[in-house]
């Protein structure tokens, strides 16, 4: 495969903070479904999907059509929080198709264009409602790159970029942090009930049901139910960050459905627009909606093209359970194939992780996992690493990936694992 290198202007002019372009140093030009193409026409199967922003694939034709039609008729693009037809249609569709069938009565906040905006709004509202400052987060969590979101993020490198103390947040052990059957959050309950524990009464607990950036760590449904119960007993608001794992990534629209819990606050972004357009939501129980008009706002909280594609995505993919069943089935197929690799290379200590179409294969080191992703890239597959030491090869393919693309991508990945591990043995 001939590699298309980026221009000198691009590499010299753009900030050194760029990251994905270092792993995949080609210039991409177009994308369809689960395949991206560079400027020389070389195809790359995409098991990255915009870090989970493209659950319905690149340039999904149904979503593209409604977007083009909307723009062609001069539909409103920017409107802050003014009423628009696109906004109304999205809210009605979201309530009728997603919220009400799941017994959720949450109100919708449009906090700004990205996931960090949704998290900041959640933290801010939780503190306003309770009058408390402290928030409980979890080891290996990732919630965003702004200061409030970083304060509840576990990654040391990302936290270090803040340049200031990150306060009013306390990390607790995530499920299975101690590699056993210990109910890790019971430590938190002990501190909450111990007058000598030194823990300020928290405003909220923020949790991911599956830690994507943290290494595809999936919490057990029982653990999540017990955590929700703990929050209720102690008057603590439960925030579920569903930014990467929501919108069907694990099967159901929300990743917490399997645990049968009802969070007080839910954050969504990434695939909520369906097309990769900027959009975020913070969903709050009605009694928590105590903001004054304009107390939380942002210039780009009314991006109507995203409302249009989000509405069509919900209608097309969430009016029945076909996509949910497909996601669960494909996830089980990956699990089976990963388990085969784990058994084949037992001496290497591989671990298969995840749920739905959020899957990970953990290696003994980030160096090995990185070699696997680079070998995969050289053969036409985009897949990233995650975890505190980048030791997990992380799969987030589009939920709508075709059978042919799915099979081709899995074969490239499996061969990359074989090549790297057998070369290591030799």
TrEMBL record:
Q: Could you tell me one molecular function GO term of this UniProt entry?
A: diaminobutyrate-2-oxoglutarate transaminase activity
Question: What PANTHER family does the annotation carry?
Answer: DIAMINOBUTYRATE--2-OXOGLUTARATE AMINOTRANSFERASE (PTHR43552), DIAMINOBUTYRATE--2-OXOGLUTARATE TRANSAMINASE (PTHR43552:SF2)
Pfam assignment, any one: Aminotran_3
The protein's matches in PROSITE patterns, at most eight in alphabetical order, are given as: AA_TRANSFER_CLASS_3
Name the pathway: Amine and polyamine biosynthesis; ectoine biosynthesis; L-ectoine from L-aspartate 4-semialdehyde: step 1/3
Q: Which InterPro entries match?
A: Aminotrans_3, Aminotrans_3_PPA_site, Dat, Ectoine_EctB, PyrdxlP-dep_Trfase, PyrdxlP-dep_Trfase_major, PyrdxlP-dep_Trfase_small
Q: Which cofactor does it need?
A: pyridoxal 5'-phosphate
This chain's protein is named: Diaminobutyrate--2-oxoglutarate transaminase
Entry EC number(s): 2.6.1.76
Protein's UniProt keywords contain Protease? no
- What family classification does the UniProt entry report for this protein? Belongs to the class-III pyridoxal-phosphate-dependent aminotransferase family.
- Which keywords has UniProt assigned to this entry? Aminotransferase, Pyridoxal phosphate, Transferase
SUPFAM superfamilies referenced in this protein's UniProt entry, alphabetically? PLP-dependent transferases (SSF53383)
